[in-house]
């Protein structure tokens, strides 16, 4: 069973990594922030699988923290975006 | 009994992993930002949910099981608000008609 | 299977670091760095350092990201750097960096075997403290002086940040709230903090016996406080407020007081009386958690942006 | 020589490479913000090397030597406070000069005229 769970963790890590690079190389700034969302969910899944595979309960805490902070980082990113979006809109309206 | 539990775990974790794959495929193949966002937040959360369900029988104590469920709840909350925030920015950015 | 996992993780870390070094714009680099922080947390899990994994996920993936993203948004309008380094500089830097990496790699491949370790000493000292988590024991008993000095460094950094405010704004409040607060953000800022505070208290509580502790708890509290300030639910406090300043120093002050009491009660600076070590350590940790949360929150908020009220 | 398949050695080598990448960014990149990020990558590399040493020092029932682990936690917090101070200084520099770099402005006032 541990081998299967670790294998699943590797699979999800690779799949998440592929998505991550697609998103990070995107030209659209908004899409980049999906990277954090992606890695928050994928990372939590990987950690939970590893935690069960190695029978260490403390890993669940790491997953909990990861989920909590991915929401936080996402909020931080969109703030910078929205303020600059309104700024460009204002600049567009001027002329 | 353990054989049954293990089969259940393999099934749930396996299908969870496939949802992660589906999410990434959507991210790679869908044509625009909003549908990519949709693929990411729905598929990955379903995948995480299935994995949590698959791992629940292996939880060593009630509190460990509760924590697993909390991770998933937090993921729901996080994904819902983060997708809303990202989608809001994406819509602002779209050239106005 | 585990080796494969390690290889994938290391490849991901290196690819993200290269992305940070080569990304065209700063924003892309910062998002790459946040992702790097999350992945590094996984790496620490593989190195069997759950305590460090928690710290790295909280600081590298969370609070540092907010700090960098805010300054990036602030300086985005600056013209692109006028010139890039000359090719000869780049070549020289590349040679230097490869030499440093090669040197370190050589050292790592030739570390002494059997490896020197303090683990038995830490294990022996663990019984005296009544704690179960060796990392907490090292931080708060075995090498408590380091931890005390680190708290002082945090306060000094905050003094440095505050002193960058223009004269007429000195003592005023930093400004975090953006011009427009999106609806989902204020929802998140109402719903997430209760969870966050619960997790922080839990993290503090288990820290004595399992991975977790003051830094992790303090960082989570700081993140939740920042979220509330970002959504504009509560304004940032004036930096000259007495309560704020008391909260900033309560942790180091308690720590220092216990340190000096050690002379009277146990015959040395920061020595804990036998049998009472665990309650004393928990008391120090509680005060430190509060101070760390407030200090980190104010560090991310930055210097004053508004004139002090009245 | 220890085997590369050992996770401690693998992550240690990864740390060495990260130190190189971070150092390169700090030296070469003209933008100060990127240099701050590079400094953090450099720090992460050093912490990983510490982590490799800690992992090798497993013993007495622990999976790693707790002393270097505790030092890494201290290091992460100190690196964060240094980053916060640097970021505040960068913001002040930008407010005063409108620039986010220490490079002197290009002569004749035409940005990028050298290229």
From TrEMBL, chain A:
The chain crosses the membrane at residues 6-24, 36-56, 62-80. InterPro entries: MrpF/PhaF-like. GO terms for molecular function: monoatomic ion transmembrane transporter activity. This is Multisubunit sodium/proton antiporter, MrpF subunit. It is a multi-pass membrane protein. GO terms for cellular component: plasma membrane. Pfam families: MrpF_PhaF. It is found in: Cell membrane. The keyword Transmembrane applies. Its main location: membrane. It comes from Bosea lathyri. It comes from the Bacteria. The keyword Membrane applies. Keywords: Cell membrane, Membrane, Transmembrane, Transmembrane helix.
Automatic annotation (TrEMBL), chain B:
The keyword Membrane applies. One of its GO terms (molecular function) is sodium:proton antiporter activity. The chain crosses the membrane at residues 6-28, 72-90. It comes from the Bacteria. The keyword Zinc does not apply. Keywords: Membrane, Transmembrane, Transmembrane helix. This is Multisubunit sodium/proton antiporter, MrpG subunit.
From TrEMBL, chain C:
Its main location: membrane. It is a multi-pass membrane protein. The chain crosses the membrane at residues 47-69, 90-109, 148-166, 187-208, 214-234, 246-274, 280-300. The keyword DNA repair does not apply. Residues 12-75 form the MrpA C-terminal/MbhD domain. Keywords: Cell membrane, Membrane, Transmembrane, Transmembrane helix. Residues 185-301 form the Na+/H+ antiporter MnhB subunit-related protein domain. GO terms for cellular component: plasma membrane. It comes from the Bacteria. Pfam families: MbhD, MnhB. It is found in: Cell membrane. InterPro entries: CPA3_antiporter_subunitB, MnhB, MrpA_C/MbhD. PANTHER family: NA(+)/H(+) ANTIPORTER SUBUNIT B, NA(+)_H(+) ANTIPORTER SUBUNIT B. Belongs to the CPA3 antiporters (TC 2.A.63) subunit B family. This is Multisubunit sodium/proton antiporter, MrpB subunit. It comes from Bosea lathyri.
From TrEMBL, chain D:
Keywords: Cell membrane, Membrane, Transmembrane, Transmembrane helix. It is a multi-pass membrane protein. It is found in: Cell membrane. The chain crosses the membrane at residues 6-27, 39-58, 70-90. One of its GO terms (cellular component) is plasma membrane. Belongs to the CPA3 antiporters (TC 2.A.63) subunit C family. PANTHER family: ANTIPORTER SUBUNIT MNHC2-RELATED (PTHR34583:SF2). This is Multisubunit sodium/proton antiporter, MrpC subunit. It comes from Bosea lathyri.
């Amino acid at each position: 069973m541990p081998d299967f769970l670790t294998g699943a963790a590797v699979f999800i890590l690779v799949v998440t990594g592929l998505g991550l690079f697609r998103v990070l190389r995107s030209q659209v700034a908004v899409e980049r922030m999906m990277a954090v969302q992606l890695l928050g969910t994928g990372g939590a899944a990987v950690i939970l699988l590893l935690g069960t595979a190695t029978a260490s309960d403390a890993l669940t805490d790491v997953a909990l923290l990861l989920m909590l902070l991915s929401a936080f980082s996402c909020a931080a990113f969109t703030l910078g975006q929205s303020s600059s979006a309104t700024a460009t809109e204002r600049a567009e309206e001027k002329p | 009994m353990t054989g049954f539990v293990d089969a259940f775990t393999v099934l749930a974790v396996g299908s969870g992993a496939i949802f992660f794959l589906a999410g990434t495929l959507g991210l790679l193949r869908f044509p625009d930002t909003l549908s990519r966002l949709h693929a990411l937040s729905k598929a990955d959360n379903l995948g995480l949910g299935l994995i949590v369900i698959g791992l629940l029988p292996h939880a060593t104590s009630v509190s460990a099981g509760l924590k697993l469920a909390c991770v998933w709840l937090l993921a729901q909350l996080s994904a819902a608000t983060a997708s809303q925030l990202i989608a809001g920015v994406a819509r602002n950015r779209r050239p106005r008609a | 299977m585990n080796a494969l996992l390690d290889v994938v993780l290391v490849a991901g870390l290196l690819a993200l670091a290269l992305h940070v070094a080569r990304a065209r714009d700063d924003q892309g680099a910062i998002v790459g760095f946040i992702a790097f922080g999350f992945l590094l947390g996984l790496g620490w899990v593989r190195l069997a350092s759950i305590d460090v994994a928690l710290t790295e996920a909280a600081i590298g993936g969370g609070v540092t990201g907010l700090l960098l993203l805010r300054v990036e948004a602030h300086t985005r309008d600056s013209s692109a750097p006028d010139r890039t380094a000359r090719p000869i500089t780049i070549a020289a830097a590349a040679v230097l960096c490869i030499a440093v990496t090669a040197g370190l790699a050589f050292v790592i491949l030739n570390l002494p075997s059997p490896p020197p370790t303090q683990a038995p000493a830490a294990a022996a000292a663990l019984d005296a403290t009544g704690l179960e988590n060796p990392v907490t024991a090292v931080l708060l008993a075995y090498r408590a002086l380091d931890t005390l000095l680190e708290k002082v460094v945090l306060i000094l950094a905050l003094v440095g940040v505050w002193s960058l405010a223009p004269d007429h704004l000195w003592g005023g409040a930093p400004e975090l709230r953006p011009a427009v607060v999106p609806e989902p953000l204020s929802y998140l800022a109402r719903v997430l903090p209760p969870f966050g505070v619960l997790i922080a208290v839990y993290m503090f509580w288990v820290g004595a016996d399992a991975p977790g502790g003051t830094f992790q708890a303090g960082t989570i509290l700081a993140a939740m406080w920042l979220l509330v300030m970002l959504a504009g639910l509560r304004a940032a406090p004036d930096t000259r407020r007495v309560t704020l300043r008391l909260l900033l120093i309560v942790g180091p002050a308690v720590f220092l007081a216990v340190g000096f009491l050690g002379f009277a009660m146990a015959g040395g600076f920061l020595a804990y009386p036998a049998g009472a070590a665990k309650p004393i350590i928990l008391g120090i940790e509680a005060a430190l958690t509060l101070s760390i949360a407030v200090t980190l929150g104010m560090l991310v908020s930055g210097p004053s942006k508004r004139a002090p009220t009245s | 020589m220890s085997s590369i398949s050992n996770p401690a050695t693998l992550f240690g080598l990864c740390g060495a490479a990260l130190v190189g990448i971070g150092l390169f960014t700090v030296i070469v990149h003209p933008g100060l913000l990127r240099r701050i990020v590079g400094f953090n990558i450099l720090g992460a590399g050093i912490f990983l090397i510490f982590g490799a040493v800690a992992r090798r020092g497993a013993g007495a029932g622990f999976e790693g030597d707790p002393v270097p682990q505790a030092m890494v936690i201290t290091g992460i917090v100190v690196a964060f406070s240094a980053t916060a101070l640097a970021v505040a200084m960068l913001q002040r520099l930008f407010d005063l000069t409108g620039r986010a770099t220490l490079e002197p402005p290009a002569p004749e006032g035409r940005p990028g005229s050298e290229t």
